[in-house]
């Protein structure tokens, strides 16, 4: 099931994730392994996921490059890590870090 969920994008992915009550235990699972939402291991997983997207998607790299030196922000996401699997800061900081690789 996880493989199929990973193929989803946008709203379909968000809606599929709403079916899970990960926030009760603050635990997410990757490849059958439990990962504490607030651990370094989880942050490392996010880093690897975004790096893979960066390496595999030319359109992603082009979009990052097109943003120039602008400060990236995201107003829809949440700021409390207890309420979301990816906070605004986690999202935007990763994008800006990857953008630096293009310089």
Q: In a nutshell, what does this entry contain?
A:
Helices cover 55% and strands 8% of the residues.
Question: Could you name the key traits of this structure?
Answer:
103 residues, mainly alpha, two-stranded antiparallel sheet, 6 helices
Structure notes:
55% of the residues lie in helices and 8% in strands. It has 103 residues and is mainly α. The protein has one domain. A two-stranded antiparallel sheet has the order 1-2. A hairpin with a 2-residue loop joins strand 1 and strand 2. The longest helix has 17 residues.
What is the structural class?
A: mainly alpha
Number of domains: 1
Q: What percentage of residues falls in helices of 4 or more residues?
A: 55-70%
Number of helices: 6
Task: Give the DSSP E fraction (strand runs of 2 or more residues).
Answer: 5-15%
- Count of individual beta strands: 2
* Major sheet: arrangement of strands: 1-2
Oligomer: single chain
Q: On the 0-100 scale, what is the average pLDDT? A: 91
Low-confidence runs of at least 5 consecutive residues: none
H/E element order: HHHEEHHH
Radius of gyration: 14 Å
Shape: globular
Biggest sheet record: 2 strands, antiparallel
End-to-end span in angstroms? 38 Å
């Amino acid at each position: 099931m996880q493989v199929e969920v990973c193929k989803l994008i946008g709203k379909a992915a968000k809606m599929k994730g709403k079916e899970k009550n990960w926030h009760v235990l603050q635990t997410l699972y990757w490849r059958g392994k439990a990962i504490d939402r607030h651990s370094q291991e989880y942050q490392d997983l996010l880093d690897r996921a975004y790096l893979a997207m960066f390496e595999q998607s030319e359109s992603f790299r082009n979009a990052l490059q097109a943003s120039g030196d602008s400060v990236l922000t995201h107003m829809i996401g949440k700021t409390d890590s207890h309420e979301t699997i990816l906070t605004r800061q986690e999202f935007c900081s990763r994008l800006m870090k990857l953008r630096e690789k293009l310089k």
